[in-house]
Automatic annotation (TrEMBL):
Signal peptide: none annotated. It comes from Nothobranchius kadleci. It comes from the Eukaryota. Residues 1-37, 174-197 are annotated as: Disordered. The gene is CCDC148. Residues 187-197 have a biased composition (Basic and acidic residues). Keywords: Coiled coil. This is Coiled-coil domain containing 148. The keyword Iron-sulfur does not apply. Residues 72-114 form a coiled coil.
Length: 197
């Protein structure tokens, strides 16, 4: 009976030890689950904060993009409006110019009756050219020199030509004869030379 009590005591102690071990393991598992849950909550909170920050950044970027698109649209609209105004101004100036030219044309408009005789007649330019044809045949300027008749009327020229034809123009005789022949008119006194040959 005593052995049986000891055996029961031992079994009871073992059961208590096993219960204590199981209790510790349950506590550890519980602590582990709590730790995992906290870690998961922390990660989820961080993800939520990151998502909120990213959403805020994207909303800000979208707002800036909308502003930029609106600004570009306004600039394009302004440029289109300026181009249209410039085109209208150019058309207005062109119309004013045409009106002024038309008024000027009316001021200087030629009012002439039909005149077939005048139309088929000679023009002033043709008459002027026809009258000046005789003047065009005249020499442009007068020559102040000797004619061939005047040159050949000089006895010295005729004598030199005769000596040349005879082949004596380089002889002493021809030089002596030519120096003795007098010109048809005596030379002017201001052209006389003091040199003797």
């Amino acid at each position: 009976a005593r052995r049986q009590e000891e055996e029961e005591e031992r079994m009871k102690r073992e059961q208590e030890q096993e219960a204590a071990v199981r209790s510790q393991q349950k506590e550890k598992v519980k602590q582990f689950h709590l730790k995992q849950q906290k870690r998961t909550e922390v990660l989820e909170r961080r993800d939520q904060e990151r998502l909120a920050a990213l959403r805020s950044i994207m909303e800000e970027q979208a707002r800036r993009d909308r502003q930029r698109v609106q600004f570009r649209a306004d600039v394009l609209q302004q440029r289109r409006k300026e181009r249209e105004e410039l085109e209208l101004e150019r058309q207005r100036e062109e119309q004013d110019k045409q009106n002024r030219l038309e008024a000027l044309r009316k001021q200087v408009e030629v009012v002439a009756e039909a005149d077939p005789e005048r139309m088929m007649g000679d023009t002033e330019a043709w008459k002027s050219r026809h009258l000046n044809e005789n003047e065009l045949q005249k020499p442009l300027y007068s020559l102040s020199t000797y004619t061939d008749t005047q040159i050949l009327s000089d006895p010295r020229v005729r004598l030199e030509q005769a000596l040349r034809e005879a082949g004596l123009q380089q002889s002493q005789y021809s030089k002596a004869v030519l120096s003795e022949v007098k010109p048809p008119k005596p030379p002017r006194r201001d052209t006389e030379s003091t040199l003797k040959f």
